[in-house]
Amino acid sequence: MINLNINNKEYEIDTVEDEPLLWVIRDRLGLTGTKFGCGIGECGACTVQIDGEAVQSCQMEVGDAVGKKITTVEGLPENHPVKVAWIEKEVPQCGYCHSGQIMSAASLLANNPEPTDSDIDNAMSINICRCGTYPRIREAIHLAAGKKG
Amino acid sequence: MGKIINISRREFCKSSAVLGGSLVLAFYAPGCSRKAEELATAKPFVPNAFIRIAPDESVTVIVNKSEMGQGVYTSLPMLVGEELEVDWAKVSFEPAPVDHVYDHTQWGPMQGTGGSTSIRSCWEQFRKAGATARVMLERAAAKTWKVDPADCMAERGFVINRKTGKKISFGKLVDEAAKQTPPEKVELKDSSEFDILGTAKKRLDTPDKVNGRALFGIDVNQEGMLTAVVARPPVFGGKIKSFDDKKAKAVHGVKEVVRIDRGVAVVADHFWPAKLGRDALEIEWDEGPLASLDSVAQGAEYAKIAETPGTVATDRGDVKKALSGAAKKIDAVYEFPYLAHAPMEPLNCVADVRADSCEIWVGTQMQTLDRDAAAAATGLPEDKVKLHTTYLGGGFGRRAVGDSHFVKEAVQVSMAVKKPVKVIWTREDDIKGGYYRPRSYHKLSGGLDTDGKFVALNHRMVNQSIVKGTPFEGLIKDGIDHTSVEGAFDTPYDIPNLFVDSHMAPAGVPVLWWRSVGHSATAFVKECFVDEMAALAGKDPYLFRRELLAKHPRQQALLDLVTEKAGWNKPATEGSHKGIAIHESFGSIVAQIAEVSVDGTGRIKVHKVVCAIDCGKTVNPDTIKAQMEGGIIFGLTAALYGKITFNDGRVVQGNFDDYEMLRIDGTPEIEVHIMESDESVGGVGEPGVPPIAPAVANAVFAARGVRLRQLPFATNLLRS
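Output (structure tokens, whole complex):
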């Protein structure tokens, strides 16, 4: 049995310690906002926050997440500045990668409230968007940071 | 509308939130909320298959096109809303079930999404549906008030009596409206009267996509569902000789291992054990005739094929004579690799096959073909197969297949294990799984006369046919696959002597339409080669094109617009250079100017792209802008990185580490200008892709004097 704290809720899960956190979140807990994109830590679709830091959940064994505070896109409030900015700037197209994009962006802003374009590039380069919404991601992060996009 | 079975109440409430408020009327489940229960007893007004108006004023538009990012769940409701005179805030959408009433208006008897046709093919259909409903509501109001229908006029969700100024809401008219006979003919608005179309309405699907609620195929869960991962042949056309599943079955969580047409499926309670089980399978393959397929050898084979005459696509003037008499000539070869679509959501499908029914949940671009394939696979009649279209985590053509392979796999596994099953492809399964943009080889000779006029072009190409052997084979006319030669045989450049011929390369590697299809290669050839000819003539690339487009005033006007906006005549930022390209595809014309620098290692940096589009009338300008941005980035990814190659019959690339995508740090500043136009609506999903690679290549030529004639760019040619 594995005990996890996700979005401030306690879960007890019957699984092995080396199952990737991503699949525990998606398959065993049904929190499907967190997405599978590559399975090798190259695309960021599975990004969640572990104690506030953006982490690719496909690369973390569930055993390593025990005792930590896990936040998924469902746990980020709807009025979070990043989510509001994402809607304001009409960022998503297909939308599949955006749970991960949003979790990365929220973590960036928590650490760096006024990021420059190059700060954004550095923090967000882990997240691939095949639809090509990058220009709007950049604008939305500036907007969420309180700057003009 | 059917009701979703096998879905828990909790999930239902979740999915109803996804699909929009008035869904409760169709997919009624008790206990979601009191309001829902009350509403469910009232009957909505359903004037036709595309619209449902409920007593609570909600207007649901049933959309028969798949939402894969291009915005159809908003733009198509806008078409209805314009003619229906809705209060836009009351509009929501719902994916259509499979029914012939939802067939594509241009493709024959099938429902589907592709070819940037959604707006074009629904432009009249959806507006008529809206206008029909509006007339019925107006008549219902006239009946209620006992006045002349001519005095009743719909406006923003109400019908207003022109004489008295009295108003009544659509929701209050639903019962009476349902009694009205639909008008045989309706009058549609003139574009000057539009007040929804042409405005940047917010996308209706954004809030769910931002909050992790949007349900993609991979997110579907059914009671008792198992997950399968499939081992497919390592070489296309390979077959199983034998397999040993002992180790796979030993994985904790693995339930069954079943053989299906396309391979061996490991079925488990969840994805992870299924994947571990699949990886533990020991399979002996008969690799078949492509076992030694090698990209270098294949390139030589294509070059050899190009030495012989192909099937003629265009023959105008006398190219041989014109070339032999040309004052100046260029011979060039352009080459393109296979490309994977790599949508962010790996392929997947959920199937639940029972003795007398089959239910499918899938993000597909081809509903009817997939439904019929499931019927054929199960032996059930088509009306016993129910297909639910989920959100698509990207399509780009990959989810528009003629053989329904990713649906059939799930159906076969579900049949074998007699349970609902979700088949999930890993990223490697997707990248190595075929259905690629075809590789192609293009051999050109072009000639200028003594005045520097482009007087002769001979263009021969070699590539596999996308449609041969598929339900779309009808697109082959007189031995020419239109999707191979589009953008080349119909070049708008006024070249008096033009000869285009084409070879179908040997089949084997599964090929498919990839965002912008044939244009993804032909536009690069056309726009780079015209740039070569301009340089040979010593003329400005913009003016050289402009002169060749004298018979195409829309293209000329777009060139004027893009050069003005990009400051074509002004020097570029220190150290960078500009390149231009223009191309028409899918009913729209797009021109782009790229500002580029090249460093000593040959690394190309694209700083800025100015894009202008003429897509005729606009539906949602912000969606057009988004599609141009996305198309440019999609095209840049292919230009800089995209390449699927073969070694010993096997695909070399497998994931985003070796099949790279452009990321935010490589993304240029993008500026989009939409030409004001009252021409017919054009497509927007694909036309942004073709011009970017040639615009960048032409800018690289301006920077370095080197012509890049291969995609992805051979940056080793640029090392100083």
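Confidence is low (pLDDT under 50) at residues 1-40 of chain B.
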